Amino acid sequence: MVEGDYSSQYGLLRDYVLELQSKNPGTTVKIDLEPGHPRDLTRQFRRIYVCLGALKQGFKALGRDLLGLDGAFMKGPYPGQLLSAVGVDSNNGIYPVCYAIVEVENLSAWTWFLDLLADDLEIPRNSAFKFMSDRQKGLLPAVSKLFPLAEHRYCLRHIHDNMKGTFKGRQYKDLLWKYAQETTIPEFQTSMEELKAFNKKAHLWLSKIPPLHWTRSHFSGRALSDMLLNNMCETFNGKILEGRDKPIIAALKYIREYLMRRIVTVLRVIERTEGLITPWAQKHLQTIKKDAAFYHVQWNGGDLYGVSGKPGHTRVVDLAKKTCACRGWEITGMPCRHAVAAIWFMATNGQRVGALESWFDPVYSIGRWKEVYAFKINPINGKALWPKSEVPIKITPPKHHKQVGRPKKVRKRSAVEMEDEGSSKKKGRLSKKNMKGVCGKCGNTGHNQRTCKGQGEKRKD
Q1: Is the pLDDT assigned to residue 413 strictly greater than 50?
Q2: Mean pLDDT throughout 337-352?
Q3: Short-list 86, 78, 90, CA closest to 6
């Protein structure tokens, strides 16, 4: 009674959309139905796409060309997929932009979703926009088709999941992360040669994935982010988990209300924040300053500085162009440790440098953060006050395919995630994996009391 009927809500979908758009100007909603005869008075639902006007304007104000793409299962009697595009805000928090409920995750659905997304966000088809994903079914060819020049990053956890099937062990994971975190091409090439010397098959396997998709050494600076994981989408999917088993309008309502509450929560944090840059950027700056304290600086009398920590690791910093040979400043938009050391040296020579925060890209500024969240999502009236759609064709539920077994609420975590989260501890107890049990009768290992056949003397406590 509270959430509504699963099947009847499809017939109210057009009324809901009219109310949503009237209370939230600039909102884009597209409903796609199954093909039918022009004279049909009923058509089956296939897809719906939603991009709220406030989120559309906020993302454009952010100025960060990066979106994570992901899909998650719907849990109700009419199963489908929830596709989402999630950005990263000035404080390194998630910024959901648009979402859609489709019949299945394939090339057709992703192409439809990305085509609408490009129109809403005004992304040119020949732009070098940045996407990040887990390489879902149909997504790679869809991105290649619509955005042939885009930089498509692959989530490193997903790459390791695939790698672990052949090359097991913590060492391979550590090496993969080491190579992905290299910020220059020469350093990356040296690391890959080390892998080749360590294991030629592993080197061949990893070489088949173009470095543009997974290592910082090949990332451009347009996204102002060195992210290697698609965590923003996973976080969003986790926040709307309870809404994914509700009737379609209730599910859309749940997502909208979560996004509305999130904006209010962030605005409260902004009100308490002092300084020039966001809290996440401030925290990152403290780490950079600690590292910069150990560097030696040589000045050429102009804009160039040679910054070195240990022999053979000198990096040239150009403060006029805001670049460093390590490329950390270029990739993230934040001055790296070499740049901070150069700025400090500049200040000791009597030159005006201003606060270190002023050297950050404006995307990290408090002003930009406030501008992004100045656009608010508005509530809507209840069903009794919705306008009535004049479209004569009635929307009916999609084809129902009952899934085998009990529906799962929580996404099954991979072995890598379990390992990362400290899977050795389960329910407050240490795991007994790879441990030999001790018999309570004889004290020997390799068996227990039930299978003990007197292999040794009874243990005396």
Answers
A1: yes
A2: 92
A3: 78
What pTM does this model have? 0.85
Picking from 110, 104, 98, 101, the residue whose alpha carbon sits closest to that of residue 139 is: 110
Residue 441 has pLDDT above 80, yes or no: no
Residue given tokens 């600039």 in the structure block: 26
Among residues 294, 284, 401, 400, the alpha carbon closest in space to that of 344 is found at 294
104, pLDDT greater than 60: yes
Quick check: 262 and 93 in contact, CB under 8 A?
Answer: no
Mean pLDDT computed over 166-172? 90
Mean pLDDT computed over 204-229: 93
- Integer angstrom CA distances of residue 427 from 142, 411, 430: 42, 18, 8
- At residue 178, the 3 state secondary structure works out as helix
DSSP structure class, residue 165: T
Least confident of 110-114, 362-366, 433-437: 433-437
Residue 396 backbone class (left: φ over 0; alpha: ψ -120 to 50; beta: rest): beta
Domain residue limits, the chain = 1-155+229-276+377-424, 165-223, 279-364
Which residue from 348, 318, 212, 270 is spatially nearest to 89, judged by alpha carbons? 270
Q: What Rg, from alpha-carbon coordinates, does the chain have? A: 27
The single-letter code of the amino acid at 375 is: F
Torsion (CA) 361, 366, 369, 371 in degrees, nearest 10:
-110
Cβ-based burial of 204 (10 A; exposed 0-12, middle 13-18, buried ≥19): exposed
In Å, how far from its chain's centre is CA 283? 20
Q: Rounded to 5 degrees, what angle do the CA atoms 394, 396, 402 make?
A: 180
Question: Is residue 335 classed as helix, strand or coil in its secondary structure?
Answer: coil
At 154 the three-state DSSP class reads strand
CA-to-CA distance for 330 and 325, rounded, in angstroms? Answer: 9
CA distance 370 to 271: 9
Give me the chain's average pLDDT, please: 89
The rounded distance, in Å, linking the Cα atoms of 441 and 351 is: 79
Asked whether the beta carbons of 429 and 44 are under 8 A apart, the reply is no
Give the pLDDT confidence of 237-285 residue by residue, as tens digits. Answer: 999 999 998 999 999 999 999 999 999 999 999 999 999 999 999 999 9
Give the SS3 label for residue 149: coil
